[in-house]
Amino acid sequence: MITMNSAHDFTLKLNKIYPVKPERVFNAWTKSEELEKWWGPEGFTTTIDEMNVEVNGKYKFNMHAPNGAVHVLAGQYLEIVPNEKLVFTWKWENGKGDFPATKVTIDFIDQGNSTEVVVTHTELPSEEEAKNHNHGWTSSLESGLKAYLV
What we know:
3 helices, alpha+beta, 8 strands, globular
């Protein structure tokens, strides 16, 4: 779901349920050797230059598109609650020079033998960018992460 907060502030919210415990899903997001195996839209591969999962720790991912383009994503972890929540900044470092730093919150909701993952991406600068990120997140959650976890 995309919500317009103001002319240059859009929020994207997605959720997906996985048939595994929160710890398993949380590790897929916070362990570099796991994240590399699923991160990115369908057809992409990811290499990690930096991933320091601690408050104020930084990350830098290289997302390799099927056409050979490399999209560099970087940010900083703002809040970490093991198996419950992950909050980080999101900034494209190449190709989208005018793209501002945005914020992503991942909630891991324990549902017994499954986990609901809620992705909230805030401060997106336009409806077009919100739609682009909706496509990327949806593909990542439904293809990459689901295939990796189950």
